[in-house]
Amino acid sequence: MTSERAPQHTAASTGAGVSGRSDAAHEAQCRRCGVSCHLAIPVNDVPVMIPGLRCQYLAPTSTGFDCTVYADRFKVAPWCHHADVAGPQGFLARDCPYVLAEGFGRGKIRLSRQQYDRYWPAILGELLRVGVPEWIHRAALLSMLTAREGGVWQLTATSDGLLPTRRSADDDSRSDEQ
């Protein structure tokens, strides 16, 4: 794990990527894998995509993912980047056709289920240490934490985004008393 927030963990400069190519051939390279729209946490200095922790506008489909605001994404989701900007910054999948075609040589990776389970303590530690950006699908984050860790979780807004915390039994008993 790195001690600082990795670029994949933050919403980078707003409006970047508006000027990228958008011709049909360029758009056709996209696999609709959704990796660029998922949060990545640095594990041993490698950006690891966190399944389920995705942009609030990314919708799963039977064949992959679709952006629900694609035509207006740079206006509605200012953290979004065109592939021409996202690739050099490492925001795309390492095996993305855009990354491979341009030879960027860096990007997010997906872990196997066994690897994900193995690295979960480090991933959770980083999530609890630095939080997540505001653009993350909140329900997906809380669902993942509850499924993997149990208990009841809440999100607290910070100047850098959202910080997940486990609610204590005292919090639960006080809300029951009211």
Throw out a few tags for this protein.
single chain; 178 residues; alpha+beta; two-stranded antiparallel sheet; disordered N terminus
**Count of individual helical segments:** 7
Write down the oligomeric state: single chain
Give the SSE string: HEEEEHHHHHEEH
What strand line-up does the widest sheet have? 1-2
Anisotropy-based shape: globular
**Beta-strand level of the residues, as a percent range?**
15-25%
Secondary structure tally: strands: 6
- Share in helix: 25-40%
Structural class: alpha+beta
Can you walk me through this structure?
The protein is α+β, with helices and mostly antiparallel strands and 178 residues long. It has a domain at 7-130. It contains 7 helices and 6 strands. Strands 1-2 form a two-stranded antiparallel ribbon. A two-stranded antiparallel ribbon has the order 3-4. Strand 5 and strand 6 form a beta hairpin. The model is unreliable at 1-19 (pLDDT under 50).
What does this entry show, briefly?
This protein is an alpha+beta fold.
Q: Which helices and strands appear, and what pairs or packs with what?
A:
Elements: H1 24-28, E1 38-43, E2 46-54, E3 58-60, E4 65-67, H2 73-76, H3 83-89, H4 97-102, H5 113-130, H6 138-149, E5 153-158, E6 161-166, H7 169-177
